[in-house]
Each structure stands twice: as C-alpha cells, then as structure tokens.
Predict the 3D structure of the following.
Amino acid sequence: MSIHIPPPAPPDRRSNRTIWIGVGLGAVVVTLSLVAILILAQGCTDHCRSASPRQPATTVTAPGAPSTTTDGPVRTGTQAQDELRRLADELRPSQSDATQGPYAYTEVWQWAHGPDPDDPARWRPMVTRQQRWRDAIGAGREVRWDHTGGGCRQDDGDVRWSSGMPGLLPPGQEPARDADGLRRQLGTPDGFRPGTAVSAIAMMADASYPDLQARAATLRLLASLPGIELQNGADPLGRRGVQVTVAERDTVGGLLGFSMLFDASGHLLVFERTVVEPPATPEPGYVENVVGYRLYTAAQRTRSVDSPPAGCEHNSVPPGTAHVGGR
C-alpha cells in the first residue's frame, strides 16, 4: 500500500546540537536517543512544571512537518479524564491485532533536525522513516530511510541484532496490561511527570506492539495525569481519533507542548512536541532540540524480520485502517 507524505520545506541553516528523537542507529546512538527524549530538553525531567497545554498561534512546530487537524470542543479536567477512561473501556480490536508472529513491527515517520551532510557542525530539518522488527528477547532489525527533500534513500545501513536490540522496554518485557504496571515500566526519576509520560509512551510504541489490553492501560494511565486536554482530530493520512495534550515548563522557562493522537482502537497515530513559549533568553539551538513530529504508519506482529519487506514501498498494515469485531 502506498502512502504519500508531503515533502518538507527547504532545509535551513539553523544550528542544533541534539537529534529530537530516535534518529540514530546502533546501541550507543540509540541509547543516547532514549536519554534525549526522556530529558525533554534542557533537564526537563528534573524540574518541569505542569502548565495549561492550550497553545497560542505563536507555537513553534517542526519545520516542514504535516499537521494534526483538530475540531470540536476542548475537554479539560475531570471531563477529559472520564472520557479517556471511557475510551479505554470501549476500545475496538484492530486489523493489526489479528496479525501473528514473534516480532513487533513498526514504521514511523519523523520530522525533526539532523546533521547537515555538507557541514557536520550545523543541523538541518530532516524527514526520516524508520522500520523496526523486535522480538521478546531483543532480536531484530532496523532500517532507516531519508525522505528529506521528497526522495527516498537508505540511511545508516541495515542493522540486525541476535539479541539486545535497544528499546524502551528491556528484553523479555511486553507492555503492561494495567495502568499501574505500565507506570512502573515507564517510570523515571522525576516522578513520572506528564511530559515524560507521553514521551515514554511514544518511545515504547517505536519497538513494541501493545495489545488491546495494553493500549487500554495506556489510556487509563494518561487519564491519571494532571492537566490533560482532549480534542477530536485527524492525522495527515485522514485517520481520526482523540488528541491528548499536556504542557510543562522546563528549567530555563520554556513552555513545551506534548500531543498524542489515538484512534478508536487505542493505537498511537501521532506524537508531536512543540515550543509553546520559548524562554526569555534561549540558548542557540533550543527550539531545534525540542520540536518534532512523529507519524506512526504501521504497527503489527510479523513472523520474520523480512516481512513486511524493507524498502521505499509501504506494504504494512497502518494501525486504525480497519477493525476486527467492531461495534
């Protein structure tokens, strides 16, 4: 199945120091990427403060990224929490729940910043696509593609692991099927603040396949966070769902926005991080370190690391395209 993704805006020359999330390959680089997303920029996990996530027109997003279209009223407080719990209770099985095999397969597009090949000291807007296969013991494969400028070329090789493939969950663990268990799996030293929670959930979705019960647990966990807001929305592929948004202030005074879009099966479709308000005196590269847009186009089980095939054609099952059982 072919998926058309709009090309990014022309690259600029703004500097940056850190790839936004998960754009590196290999154990060392992926480990650094896991750390990068959990610090939430500038030490946010230690001292971030919850804030209203409603975003003004000045919000800074990833350059050239598509957007999540929202509509309808914004729900806050207990109304938002109750609605998420109700959605968790009413989740529908998806077509990808019927797939079988030892490997969790995911495909993720990302709009963020990466090293400029013409000048390694500078950073540029990038569009990448990541295909990952990972089993319960950490065996698997990762292939990355560079779509910057609208093309498609293999980026950083084709890496395979017999065990120990990096991922947010250690080998032998699957996403927990209850909110308390999931909180323990994803917990961080900051006491599991909202921004950290949504970032960790996004990282978990990169390399695992949460089943129906685990997806329900994810929504119940989000419902327990302070300051969440909900709004109906659709991703760039037209897949509809509910958007969950939180905001936190970092240690230098910036207000960061975190948004996730879930479909009626509880699959994560979009994760976006924005700068709602920059600090009064931001360091060079502050915005580029933070902003990013991730589009989840496939999540399923598969029997081998060669299925679906790696390449510029998209033959996987996008989450949320169909349902088994239904209502």
About this structure: The radius of gyration is 18 Å. The first helix runs from residue 26 to 39. DSSP finds seven helices and eleven strands in the chain. The chain has one domain: 26-302.
